[in-house]
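To: structure desk
From: M.T.
Subject: fold request, one chain
Message: Could you run this one when you get a chance? Sequence is below, nothing fancy, just the single chain.
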Amino acid sequence: MSMKKEAYWLANEIGAGQEIDAECLMDGAEDMDMEKYRTAVLGSIRREKKMRKKKYYGFAVAACAACAVLVGTAAFGDQVHAAIRQISWSIGNALGISADLEKYREVVNTSVSDQGYVITLQEAVVSEDKLVVNYTIRREDGQSMGDEILVPSGSLYINGKAVHDGAGGSAGFIDEEQKVIGEVDEYHISGDVDLTQENEYVLSFDAIGNENEIKGKWEFAFTAAGADLIADTVRAEIEKDFQLPDGTTVTLHEFTSNQLEQRITFSQSAGTRYLLMVMAEDQNGHQAEFGTRTIDENAGYMQNEDIVLDGRVDDTAGPLTLTLFAVELPEENGRISDDYVQIGEPFELGI
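Reply: Done. Structure tokens follow.
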């Protein structure tokens, strides 16, 4: 899977008000691989606009946790400090969730050095149609990275085959001295790979950086299986149809919830300029926004974007109230509006 720096720039910067081409949601794209990526990026726009500050909160929490561990170890120097920060920073820290992923994660904890930089792959979690990994980047000499948040580019292979289904991620410094960058990436996986089984993964980075790209090789091989997390996923059938203002029919299929994420799957009758969002409210009055994360061949899912900072809706306290919203993308390059309109009536979903 190609993850060039432009892909990360889009995923992390579009939400700040950059321009976007809405044509990527329409049928007939010639480059289907780019179509998959672009639609995945568009699905993240709403989340990025809302979560830009929140997503770094997870890094702040991780840094504070590291500081607590560092008490009494100051005499050991910066390299030990960096190592402890890395150990303290997990996928849970990165995503800002308190759910216990211990049962479901594969601890890789492998470091590779090249061109004066060390990348440490920390953990991997496999869920439905998805691989999530977190890693850190630091300089070998232990010096500050400056203000630039370096992002790796590379490829993902599963059982020896390259995966081309789209990826996204977020990154930030996890220490005040800006010596360690923490990143969490999600790789979307479709096709005939059975993710419940133990598969062989190879994550190979060939460059890091943005404008001043640094060529090198940082490769990681590990095995992971998603059987436990997928088996422990709560599922509730929805199967409700809604009509968008342009006549497109949207069907909400299923609500799923596990320790890693909460999502709502959907399909649509045709390509559309409308981007979907569901507002969910639990019996405790807590609300969470499910923003479109991926869409491919008119099917995709919305994900709870408020799960950062542990904002999941409680699926154990009774029915959820769900309300569908949509916003029309601009016909030409331009900013996406925040003016979502309600589609249909709210409804209750028994879990």
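Reply (cont.): The two ends are 36 Å apart (CA to CA). Let me know if you need anything else for the meeting.
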